[in-house]
Amino acid sequence: MSATNWPSIISELAELEIITDAVQLSKLSLDYYHFSPILSKKLNNKRANLVVRPVNEVEVLKIAQTCVKYQVPLTVRGAGTGNYGQCIPLEGGVVLDTTKMNQIRSLEPGLACVEAGVKMAAFDKKAREIGWELRMAPSTYRTATIGGFIGGGSAGMGSITYGQLRDRGNLQAVRVVTLEDEPRILELRGDDVQKVNHAYGTNGIITELEIPLAPAYPWVELIVIFDQFMRAARFGQALGDSDGIVKKLITIQAWPIPSYLTALEDYLPQGKHAALLMISQYDLEPFQNLVKEYGGEITYQKTATEATKGSSLLEFTWNHTTLHARSIDPNLTYLQTFYFTLERVEQMYDYFGEEAMIHLEFLRVGGKAIPAGLQLIRFTTEERLNEIIRYHEEQGAGIANPHTYILEDGGRKVIDPEQLAFKEKVDPYGLMNPGKMRAWLERAVSV
Q: Cross-referenced Pfam families, in alphabetical order (predicted)?
């Protein structure tokens, strides 16, 4: 990027908030890519030349226009809580930080319209005033933005009821800014939202979203411990299958994973396997009967009111489990796996032992509760990590590989022709988050 006329670019964007300080540029160029020793080597030195923080769509259009004029790469960023380098600029250029675009445009029962930079927890606080909340959220809920979650996330708490973000109905509409010679604002509705849903910002700057909401229950937070891991896993499946019990979170952690959650050590005895849960206050009696049926012991229980104070159990689940474990042992990394069946969970538990410590998150896929994994891996070499991945896939598990920043190589493993066609239309110069979409890279080679 040495030939780029940065003084002219800064001059054209002078009325906007611009960040050029080296320390801030470094901070706002990175995410939690260091969870992966593979990505750490590839992404550690990637930095933006400039960060711009627009406050509205008009300013986004100005940034888009300037990047096209000077043929400068543009990478969109929310709070930077992703794990795969989704918002890390591979080729420098401009990072567009959406966090100042944080207005709730409308909020009504069942539906909301928000700007991309609205923080999830802040939104829920407002939505619960009228009895509603977000359908799902990641463990980075306190700081993550809604636009960032749509662009780079896939599931989280609430997925046991509502599935994944890509499931039809979980995103109603989006407004995006293009990077054409004359940037435009487009509105995508219905199935058309999939053109930019979980696309890492490679084919449109999401500025506004229309999202469906869920009824807000008083969520009780609980920890249940078990002597045997598979008993805990079967309990998780039974809870997921219990249609009459309303739940938001079903996390199962094999020992020694609970030993890494030091803030909860009083509730996680040595050698015990744990379930971390969010259950509707109204369903506690049938829930307690299920715990009894599976021989579990409740060691921790917070009412919905108590759960609003201090750290939520959510912050010990999903990828926060990985965060806590790595803070104690930085040699640990992780995988993301769809086991689909408990038989496959048991097979992997017996086969790998503590080399791949099993952490389950239950979610709905195709209308059924299934066990997915965020296993903690004792990392030795990249070759061994690839062997572990290959064994899982050979045994019928689906791996959403968190050790790649390429969009298609992570979870879906296939090129999405709809997303590619949309990028060809709205980003003809390939300036948006370049290097992340395999479909575009292969197209560039073949053209």
A: FAD_binding_4 (PF01565)
